[in-house]
Amino acid sequence: NYQGGAIIWSPATGAHISVGGIRSIWASTGFESGRLGYPTSDEYATGNDGSVAQNYQGGVIHWSPSGSYISWF
């Protein structure tokens, strides 16, 4: 863990950053012990309004200034 985020690693998924609003949503699901499991990507832009998403073993967290949601697998 670092101030403002963490680097999350597992043998199956490799190392990925965990920061900001997406990290807060992931925390609310139980981090890697929850239904989403480990991250499988870093955050990536999904729009030109600051929207980002991050893939996990069990779904995708979508964050935007106007709202957030989880797409479950």
SSE map:
Layout: E1 5-10, E2 14-19, H1 20-28, E3 44-45, E4 52-56, E5 59-64, E6 67-72
Antiparallel strand pairs: 1-2, 3-4, 4-5, 5-6
Can you give a write-up of this model?
- The chain has one helix and six strands, in the order E-E-H-E-E-E-E.
- It is 12% helix and 42% strand.
- The strands form two sheets. It has a four-stranded antiparallel sheet, covered by helices on one side. Strands 1-2 form a two-stranded antiparallel sheet.
- Strand 4 and strand 5 form a beta hairpin.
- The longest helix has 9 residues, at 20-28.
- The chain is globular, with a radius of gyration of 11 Å.
Keywords:
two-stranded antiparallel ribbon, 73 residues, four-stranded antiparallel β-sheet, mainly beta
Along the chain, the helix and strand elements come as: EEHEEEE
Question: Could you give the count of β-strands?
Answer: 6
Number of discrete helical segments = 1
Q: Strand portion, in percent?
A: 35-45%
| Biggest sheet, spatial arrangement of strands | 3-4-5-6
Shape: globular
Distance between the termini: 27 Å
- What low-confidence regions span 5 or more consecutive residues with pLDDT below 50? none
Derived from helix and strand composition plus strand pairing, the structural class reads mainly beta
Helix content: 10-25%
Largest sheet: number of strands, sense, barrel closure: 4 strands, antiparallel
Quote the average pLDDT.
Answer: 96
Radius of gyration: 11 Å
Write a brief caption for the model.
By secondary structure, the chain is mainly β. The chain contains one helix and six strands; from the N terminus they run E-E-H-E-E-E-E. Strand 1 (5-10) and strand 2 form a beta hairpin.
